[in-house]
Model the fold of this input.
Amino acid sequence: MTFEELKDKALSLPFEPGVYIMQDKTNCVIYVGKAKKLKNRVSQYFQDSSAHTPKTRKMVSQIDHFDVIVAASEFEALVLECSLIKRYMPKYNILLKDDKGYPYLRVDLREEYPVIEMVGRVADDGAEYFGPYGGRYMTQTAIDTLRLTLKLPGCGKRFPRDLGKERPCLNYHMNNCDGWCQLSRSPEEYRARIAQAVLMLQGKYKEVSDELREKMEQAAERLDFEQAAALRDRLNAVESLGKKQLVTAGTMASTDVVGYYQSEAKACFAVLHYVNGNLLDKDYEILPVSDSAEEAVSTLVKQYYLARNAAPKEILLPVEIEDAALFEQLLLQNLQKRVHIRVPQRGDGVRLMELAQKNAREEAERVTSREERAAGTLELLRTMLNLPDVHRLESYDISNISGTDIVASMVVFVDGKPSKKDYKRFKIEELTDQNDYESMAQVLRRRFKHYVNQDSGFSEFPSALLIDGGVEHARVAVQALAELGLSAPTFGMVKDGRHRTRALVTPDGEEIGIASVQAVFSMIGRIQEETHRFAIEYHHTLRSRRVRQSELEKIPGVGPRRRELLMKRFRSLSGIAAAETGQLREILPKDAAEAVFRHFHPDKEETT
Done:
């Protein structure tokens, strides 16, 4: 379908809730979305593209046709959207990785010798299930921790089949197992240990500790000190495990706190699991940068909890999501459990959210290299300025004091880094009064005449021009290039009260705010400061040279050649003033040397 045909089809859709399915020329589903009113939502894709983000523009450019499914309600549309995203995994939807699974721990207490085992899903078989856990490694760690704490078997033997068939294995001799394969050990004691493991999986460490302490005291009263010592060691292990909170939250979590952060190149979705106010575990995933944090959080939260088939009593989010109430209803339907979703505004909730955000930020920045960060910042800038690329940025500034020694600097940044070999400086010609606009026009005419002639050092054309100043400076720059039959994207750098670039402005007067995007704000600030520094440095050099020349011109018998010899030998005006007559005679005739000495030391005797 053509773009106009897609637009006409969108405008013919009903004002009903539903789901839309975008497909490309190969019939591959590239995006699935839901809408309160299909006509309003879908038609937005085929309106003015300047209002779209780059990602949306790219997606729309690949749409060949689309289908819609009208739903009976917004809730039904949400259910259908989640189902279709899971089915098609469209490339333009934000997606959690779905390859690691979410294992569970299974214990069948009806067996004579129950075992704690890892399984991939919950079955309706009467067994106890705990989880889901973040991954197979975390799940196996939970099993091993419980086994060592309670000295349960870690070998491949099955009971009662293997009871008494072999001598105890190395685990028994290393005091990691109580030798349950021996006929002297009772099934009742084994089941008691498994019951303790179940309590610990439920987070009831105190109940296990109290039970062990009571048995330890009873053994001591019977003068069974060996048993009391064994119980003491197990009690210490359980209490230590309770303090460390090694077992993941799973279905018993009372609160999950969601954090989301985007660096210049990577994003991180993090979930902190709390049980009774104690942090048990962190789950996170690194993702590509999204156009919208709100959209990302909304999409990821749904995928996360629906895939796990588990949720806590409360979920705290960093941003409001549009369909939070509908998602609560969906969780109630799927889990038969009421879940409250909210954005904390005060108190402990805000503190927990700050911690989740900090965790997300640290994980995102940890995996973002310096090169990726620079590339991400350039991509943000390119997107904000709507340019094909920002490979080479040229920045210009004018410097003068009261109209004297007017100079300009040209600073070049290539791929976000200063390219000092390409820096240029200009001395403004034929202007004696301060006129920034004419000065800027002259500099740009000279710079781009060199480009037209392909002179050495000027043969590269910029991706964009950054002009120190406002909209009028940008207009002057555009006009100067137009005189040479050239054009380049041009932006004025608008300052705030602290002389920092707060926005870029187009020649048409459109301001593009950058202060809210820290990475871009910092980069433009560095460019502006470097351009200003380079201009000031050249201005000071010319001014110092002029001051030296004018001072030496006052000395009789010292012409241009002798002034050049003095500066070459003594480097500066202060160096000449500090020289003795004998030193001056080494490069000047006697009369000229004495004249120089007397000029700087009118009341001092000449020395040789």
Summary: The chain has a mean pLDDT of 84. The domain at 380-522 is CATH 3.30.420.340 (Nucleotidyltransferase; domain 5). The two ends are 96 Å apart (CA to CA). The chain has five domains: 3-88, 104-244, 250-368, 380-522, 553-600.
